[in-house]
Amino acid sequence: MNNFEFSNPVKIVFGKGMIARLSALMPESAKVLLVYGGGSIKRNGVYAQVTEALKGFEVTEFSGIEPNPQYDTCMRAVALIREKKLDFILAAGGGSVIDAAKFMAAAVCFAGDPWEILTKGGEIKSALPVGTVLTLAATGSEMNERTVISRAEMDRKLGFASPKIFPLFSILDPEVTYSLPPRQTANGVVDSFIHVTEQYLTYPVNAKVQDAFAEGLMRVIREEGLRVLDEPDNYDVRANLMWAATNALNVWIGLGVPQDWASHRIGYALTVQFGLDHAETLAVVMPGVMTYMLEQKKSKLAQMGAAIFGITEGTEEHRAYQTIDACEAFFRRMGIKTRLHEYGITEFDLDNLAAPVDEIGWKLGEHQNIDSRVVREILALRL
Ligand code: NZQ
Ligand code: ZN
Fold first, then answer.
1. Both 213 and 124 in a single domain?
2. Residue 3 falls inside a structural domain
3. Are residues 320 and 193 in the same domain?
4. What is the CATH number of the domain that holds 340?
5. Do 96 and 157 belong together in one domain?
6. Which end of the chain offers a freer environment for a tag, N or C, measured as fewer CB atoms within 10 Å?
7. Closest CA to 250 of 331, 304, 192
8. 10, 68, 70, 99, best to mutate for ligand 1 pocket (most atoms within 8 Å of CB)
């Protein structure tokens, strides 16, 4: 196990009816920017619950955060925060709304050009406090220190991490996820599953605690993910999926272990250039990364095969391949496509899809051995 330091300050308030706890969680006399997306919170009752709980606070609203939140939209909110001298951001939505709120919180306090937070890793010295009301179990953004922002005019999607943007609190009421369209539920299942594999499918460092947690999460996400397709209103299924997704990316299982994240970074270009949902990009790319890197990953792939899919027969290499097939089959059962041609993407698109990795200067994977040339070869496996 590698060395690590660990602190996660996010207060989680979990369960039915917990949005009512909001006023008690807010800093006293906070001047609030309430941030939300395209309006789902108005249709599923979350907006009504939040505004009821915020009675007595000064609240300004900012709506229209897009899936894959846009930089320019966030900067319009930053201007509003400054103009009205607001001092607290409350995000009500999925990962996009929460990520947007976290970026605004950092950008509003940043001395230079906020784009440099994303492009140059500009150091975050302070950020406004953020609270969240989560409506989609997927990203873990509600309990982590990361955010991912897109900028269409630059053809870029970029992330950054800072301990200053951990939310102060997050309210997780599984009932508010009943209203999710099946596609978004499935996206959340696949995204959270692949968050675990990004931190688990590398090489062994004898980190038994992390492995056991990771395997437990993958089992739960797979079992409950398949169940939620037939039982979208089953509270226990939704609750287990929500808490699993949070734990899949709240720093915890990645402590002291090598991490990959190549599938995530490679997938950004598929969203920017072809509009795939975040999870859709992962379901295509992840089996490719695993296949291409089989030699360096086969030990953990075989371990996962036994722990999650009951794959125990054959050589280590054979079991590793079977595990990759089982992952792909799981994504397809969730209704998510796993091949580029299914999105109309052909060999002629691969150069453009691979190019950003070198342009940004990324060396991806747990061995930093993936550049644009390798990305192209990985994507070619997924046509
Ligand atoms: O915009 P609204 O009206 O809210 O509708 C959203 C949106 O259309 C809808 N939705 C959310 N909750 C709902 C609901 N519809 C009905 N009922 C509900 N309860 O779902 C759509 C997708 O929402 P979005 O927030 O975009 O989805 P998700 O949570 O999957 O977030 C994706 C974003 O998170 C980033 C992704 O890159 C992407 O930009 N990620 C953030 C991470 C992080 N901060 O740690 C890690 C992830 O790997 C990921 O990269
Ligand atoms: Zn993800």
1. no
2. no
3. yes
4. 1.20.1090.10
5. yes
6. N
7. 192
8. 99
Kindly report the protein residue whose alpha carbon is nearest to atom 14 of ligand 1: 180
pLDDT digits (tens, 9 = 90+) for 128-182: 999 999 999 999 999 999 999 999 999 999 999 999 999 999 999 999 999 999 9
Token pair of 50, please?
């939040």
Q: Identify the domain boundary among 146, 176, 206.
A: 176
Does residue 246 have its Cβ closer than 6 Å to ligand 1?
Answer: no
Residue 122 has pLDDT above 90, yes or no: no
Predicted pLDDT at 71 = 98
116 and 227 share one domain: no
- Which tokens in the block code for residue 292? 């291409």
Helix axes 71-84, 95-107, angle to 10 degrees: 50
Domain span holding position 67:
11-176
Global pTM exceeds 0.85? yes
Helices (H), 231-349: 235-248, 262-274, 278-292, 294-304, 316-333
Tell me the pLDDT band of 265, cut-offs 50, 70 and 90: very high
Residue 1: inside a domain? no
pLDDT tens figures, 99-108: 999 999 999 9
| DSSP H or E stretch at residue 149 | strand 146-151
CB distance 139 to ligand 1 below 6 Å = yes
Assign residue 371 a region: left if phi > 0, alpha if psi is -120 to 50, beta otherwise? Answer: beta
The answer to whether residue 329 is domain-embedded is: yes
Task: Count how many residues are written for the chain.
Answer: 383
